[in-house]
Amino acid sequence: MNSPRSETIERGAGGAPLSDADFEPRITAFVCNWCTYTGADLAGTSRLHMASNVRIIRLPCTGRIDPLFIVKAFERGADGVIVSGCHPADCHYTSGNYHARRRFAVFHDIMEFVGVDPRRMTFSWVSASEGAKWKDVVNEAVANVRELGPYEAYRALAPEAVEPWPQATDGLAAAGATATAGEEVAS
Amino acid sequence: MSRIGVFVCHCGENIARTVDCAKVAETLKDHPGVAHAEDYKYMCSDPGQALVKKAIEENNLTGVVIAACSPHMHEKTFRRAADQAGLNKFMCEMANIREHCSWIHEDKDEATAKAIDIGRTIIEKVKHNKPLEVIKIPVTKRAMVIGGGIAGIQAALDIADGGHEVVLIEKEASIGGHMSQLSETFPTLDCSQCILTPRMVEAYQHPNIKLHTWSEVEKVDGYIGNFEVTVRKKARSVNQDLCNGCGDCMAVCPSKKIPSEFDAGLSNRTAIYVPFPQAVPNQPVLDRPNCSLFKGRIKGLKKDACGKCKEACLKGAIDYDTEDEFITEEVGAIVVATGYELYDVGKDQPEGLKGYGEYGYGEDPDIIDGLQFERLASASGPTAGAIQRPSDGKEPKTVVFVHCVGSRDPDKGMAYCSKICCMYNAKHAMLYKHKVHDGRAVAFYMDIRANGKGYDEFSRRAIEEDHAEYVRGRVSRIFRDGDKLKVWGYDTLAGEQVVLDADMVVLATAIRPNDGVKELAQKLSCSVDTDGFINEAHPKLRPVETNTAGVFVAGACQAPRDIPDAVAMASATGAKVMALFSSDELEREPAVAVVNEQTCIGCMRCELVCPYGAIEQREICTVDGQVCGHTAYVNPGVCQGCGTCQAVCLSKSVELQTFTDEQIFSEINALCAWE
What we know:
The structure holds two protein chains of two kinds.
Chain A: H1 4-14, E1 27-32, H2 36-45, E2 54-59, H3 67-75, E3 80-85, H4 96-113, E4 121-125, H5 131-148, H6 153-157, H7 171-186
Parallel strand pairs in A: 1-2, 1-3, 3-4
Helix pairs in contact in A: 2-5
Chain B: E1 4-9, H1 21-29, E2 34-40, H2 46-59, E3 63-68, H3 71-84, E4 92-96, H4 98-102, H5 108-127, E5 135-138, E6 142-146, H6 150-161, E7 165-169, E8 184-185, E9 190-191, H7 192-205, E10 209-212, E11 215-223, E12 226-233, H8 248-252, E13 258-259, E14 268-269, E15 272-273, E16 285-286, H9 292-299, H10 308-312, E17 325-331, E18 333-336, E19 340-342, E20 367-369, H11 370-377, E21 398-405, H12 421-435, E22 440-445, H13 455-464, E23 469-472, E24 475-481, E25 484-491, E26 496-502, E27 504-509, E28 511-513, H14 517-523, E29 551-553, H15 563-580, E30 585-588, E31 593-595, H16 605-609, E32 615-621, E33 627-634, H17 644-648, E34 654-656, H18 661-671
Parallel strand pairs in B: 1-2, 1-3, 3-4, 6-7, 6-18, 7-10, 18-29, 20-27, 21-22, 21-27, 22-23
Antiparallel strand pairs in B: 5-30, 8-9, 11-12, 12-17, 13-14, 15-16, 19-28, 24-25, 25-26, 31-34, 32-33
Helix pairs in contact in B: 1-5, 2-3, 5-18, 6-7, 6-15, 11-12, 12-13
């Protein structure tokens, strides 16, 4: 497909400067199954139109989110990340979101320390009844990242680390790529 | 090597309108590991499912991705289809391209690109899915019903009639709930107590129902089929085995000025009391905070200040030294039916509510709420059914009814409609006119919402036959003017201000979930909505289930409900519980954490964060029985699959099945290929 976004990737990977007009932020959202995923479902059921830049990864609970997921997302080319779960005291699993909250309070500071603009990471609570809030979270995150521009610091470190998709030819190759990813994470 | 099948659903026009489904299928067909891809108009239909099954068999697929609606909608449907075609059902996943894509975007190119991304992500996940077996757990065929109002009573009776034991928990001294307070019920005007009390007695005497009144749920452990509920039986000070309900204790009690909860504060009760004469069980409780003996004990008096009730009790049933008792009940299902309370719209408001100070509720005795009017109109009420205003007992000649006080008012009250007020206001106006023939009943309303069988006819009758005056508009202020209450309102149909001199004002205050529902919901791990009502699992298709398996919901704790609704919901929970109890074993998704004992270092961080206490330490022994180390062990029966343990595991030795690191990292990897 030859959408403006694919060009962005190619040029981004090649290190060519991007103009603002070309830039479409790529945002990965890690959300819990019970509140935010359902809230995003509600946004859909309510036909709330929003920016199409966010890709959701469903997890059982925000407590399941390993900060390495976020690092990995940045490494693999995301320009921003959203983490969202149940409101405090509303966790489907009673306390998973409290663990997540503590974890991200620290992680947020670490990311800032290593030079990632904190505006690239949105942490929010969106309940199953807050479809409209999910829309706002998405649009706001997209607007913030759009303003910041593409996230290229990771790529600049190791441009060859990011292989564009079509290089992998079959399932085995893809699984191999994951194993490498695992090693990277372990180190 | 993976052989994944991708099935893209058009969902009629729902997906196809903004997503080019054929293109999605075509593109994903070239994705590594995909052996088959097609699109179809309605994948969830029988022919659609047949396509999936046929493709699994013909192509010998190792995994299936259904790009369609939310997994919350149809994951079960397609997993069943996969299972029927001989593929392990946990090798089937949904890619949500409807709620998360086609419905929220307009641009077809953008939505199609996103749908392809979503498809890829899930394909990569499925590549790392493992065939899993469902977990089978035994079922305790005993139910608990929390709340003894009409919904709770109905649910308990239905389950008990079905042959299963029921534990009914009520926090007040008697079952009956708000329905026992009502005078007559709309739209038939039959007496509330006449239809309720036989059911209360039936529940009390039913051989399958164990009743705990004056009790509250303290703690809930376990899971569907195997809950362990700790119940706090509050100190009653009256031995229920000895008490015969004669009432001698109440006659001698010197503390007689305690506002009666049952009469909504319009009459007084004693400290040792039975809430109302038809109470079930008809045995008193001692209200310790209001009892002079216990007040004295708190002050530290050496000698008990009173003791009259104990002296008066010929059965020797009264014991001042009883303490709260904790009992454990093992049940397989729980029905929550904790009901509602009225929004207290006075000036003083807790928790950031604004209240309606301009209506003078709580300041002027003649400004009352709907439940207070019920008590005034009830034959068992403080006036024996005569309509008298609380301040001086005079018969009010003009009564103003104000609809929607706190309802449908997102600025000051609740955004929702309280549902029952239009109907009970019509009923109140009618009851008033039936008793005070020369009186004037004026109702200020926003809209008349009479959407039930015989409801609209009923509210028309109030206007046409009983000549209640309905004014469309709001009331801005109510204040005392000598003997009268001045009501300032506005008639929006006539476009003019209305000023009335009323003798009594009845406010139809909003319905709110009962105090403590939030805490109870937390104990049950089910969620509440922004207004504090318990969330149902699906607003249309699973209206009496909650997000916690095995916990059901009935009546006004889920949303404002009238009696027919509450009873219908209660019977529905009965059917759900009976269905649950119809098999000896339950199947549970194997979404549980599993420890790799080879790599676990036994640090037990996972145990610290587990919300369910599902993790325990196990010893590792050498061949000759020497303890040489420790590992964590996850009890699959208790684990609910949140995965918090996995995120904190230092050695990456615990893995949540269905959401493994491998799966999630693969999903993230897939996202780098955004086009």
